[in-house]
Amino acid sequence: MASEDVKSTGETAVTRIVGLAEEAKLAREGVKGPSYAVLSICKSLVAGGVAGGISRTAVAPLERMKILLQVQNSHNIKYNGTIQGLKYIWRTEGIRGLFKGNGTNCARIVPNSAVKFFSYEQASSGILWLYRQQTGNENAELTPVLRLGAGACAGIIAMSATYPMDMVRGRITVQTERSPYQYRGMFHALGTVFREEGFRALYKGWLPSVIGVIPYVGLNFAVYESLKDHILKHNVFGLADDSELGVATRLGCGAAAGTIGQTVAYPLDVIRRRMQMVGWKDADAIFTAGGRNRQALEYNGMVDAFCKTVRHEGFGALYKGLIPNSVKVVPSIAIAFVTYEYVKDILGVEVRISD
Q1: What is the DSSP letter of 192?
Q2: Helix (H) or strand (E) holding 62
Q3: Do the Cβ atoms of 349 and 47 come closer than 8 Å?
Q4: Calpha distance 171→120 (Å, rounded)
Q5: Tens-digit pLDDT profile for the chain (355 aa)?
Q6: Which parts are the Solcar repeats (predicted)?
């Protein structure tokens, strides 16, 4: 009986090995097995997550400064600019203050980035298939408009999947040493908001976020991929294929993509942050200097938030924090794209976002 069990186990192992060998053979011949597809998906998600974590940590101080400038009261100004604000944080909170909220931010951005890059690949593949079916041209390629659509789909999916973490990250980030601490971390913040304000509070500011993510993420992918295609097709630097694009060229394409995307979508980001603060009982102590200003924190929706922000603080308030955000976005988006592609090279993922 024992010998039969050993024989059975041996046959199972041999069958599995033969199966893996056959799958590897099919992969080399261009036919991908199910295990290969799952592994490729996992590698793609890992590459996107690593790209998001590295790029966001590199610019964490500027990210916090941007949010503080976005939500501060115009009648009780504490931060007069990016440099002054960073110096003030360093002086009052130390180096840890510059990275406050980054752990929560990375906990959000890693899955967000993973889902975003993977969703873009899937969306662009599906859109390209439909485009070829519509035109009857099997050799058709994605146009900038189609890339914009694929990027918009990816941004909406990623934003919706991780929005509660972004919401509480915004609140944690604006807390200072002198403010009454309500949140001790991401999970404590999620639980507290859910318990005190309800489930819907976790999605405050979702609508302007989704509307803003359409041009932001859409333009990021569309501009980045289109610039790369233009450089290769017109042989700008004498390059033969995508693999010859250097780090500096990729960073330049990413920087241009990030700058254009964030400039178009920035006012919606400001409104999103302000709407996220509604219902937080400690917001008074952090942002207001009296009853009149407290009223400016009460919004009945996205349009109301826009109107009150412009009425109380002027049109320029929609671009508060734009300078640190611009300085942040250029390296952040560039690093994310470059890291994503190089990590995929290291992991051996064959499919690229250009494909």
Answers
A1: H
A2: helix 60-71
A3: yes
A4: 29
A5: 444 444 444 445 445 444 444 544 444 444 455 565 677 788 888 999 999 999 888 888 888 888 788 777 666 677 877 888 888 889 888 888 888 878 877 888 899 899 999 999 889 999 999 999 998 888 888 899 999 999 999 999 998 988 898 888 778 877 766 666 678 878 888 998 899 888 988 898 888 888 888 888 999 999 999 998 888 887 766 655 555 678 888 888 898 998 888 888 888 888 887 887 776 665 555 554 444 344 455 777 788 888 888 888 888 888 887 777 777 777 888 899 989 988 888 887 655 544 4
A6: 39-126, 142-230, 245-346
Under CATH, domain 32-347 is a member of which superfamily?
A: Mitochondrial carrier domain (1.50.40.10)
How many CB atoms are located within 10 Å of the residue 75 CB? 13
Q: Are 277 and 171 in contact (CB under 8 A)?
A: yes
The Cα 352–Cα 212 span in angstroms is 26
* CA angle 62–64–70, rounded 5-degree value: 100
Give the number of other CB atoms < 10 A from CB of residue 36. 15
The span from the CA of 166 to the CA of 276, in Å, is 9
pTM of the complete model:
0.68
| Residue 339 near residue 110, CB atoms below 8 Å | no
Is there a contact between 250 and 338 (Cβ–Cβ < 8 Å)? Answer: yes
**Single-letter code of the amino acid located at 271:** I
Alpha-carbon dihedral 203, 63, 298, 81, rounded to 10 degrees:
-170
Domain boundaries, given as residue ranges, for the chain: 32-347
C-alpha distances out from residue 353 to 121, 124, 158, Å: 6, 8, 16
Q: Of the candidates 49, 67, 302, 61, which has an alpha carbon nearest to the alpha carbon of residue 166?
A: 67
Amino acid in position 31: V
